Amino acid sequence: MSKSCKGLAMELVKCLSESDCVKVEKRSYRECAGEKSPSIPSECVGLRETYFNCKRGQLDMRARIRGNKGY
């Protein structure tokens, strides 16, 4: 279950690395993922929300019994 969100994390890093926030503004991935900036595409924002829900599902006891909905 610890690796069920790994695919989403890789997709999020790939999406952020292609955004203007990282390329033009030379900011870190963590800074760009942590805020709602107009330089971040909407697909990256959607990936961030999905990744958050995946990580939250790992802590939910009901989901821990059934298993996390992997990527």
Which structural traits does this protein have?
disulfide bond; mainly alpha; Cyt_c_oxidase_assmbl_Pet191; Cytochrome c oxidase assembly factor 5; elongated; 5 helices; 71 residues; 0% strand
What does this structure look like?
The chain has about 70 residues and is an all-alpha fold. The chain is about 65% helix and about 0% strand. It is built from five helices and no strands. Helix 1 runs antiparallel to helix 4. It is elongated, with a radius of gyration of 13 Å. About 20% of the residues are buried. The model has no long low-confidence stretch (mean pLDDT about 80). Belongs to the PET191 family. Keywords: Disulfide bond. This is Cytochrome c oxidase assembly factor 5.
Beta percentage is: under 5%
Radius of gyration computed on alpha carbons: 13 Å
Helix content: 55-70%
Largest sheet: none
Short description:
With 71 residues, the chain is an all-alpha fold.
Secondary structure layout plus pairing:
Elements: H1 6-17, H2 20-23, H3 29-34, H4 42-59, H5 61-66
Helix pairs in contact: 1-4
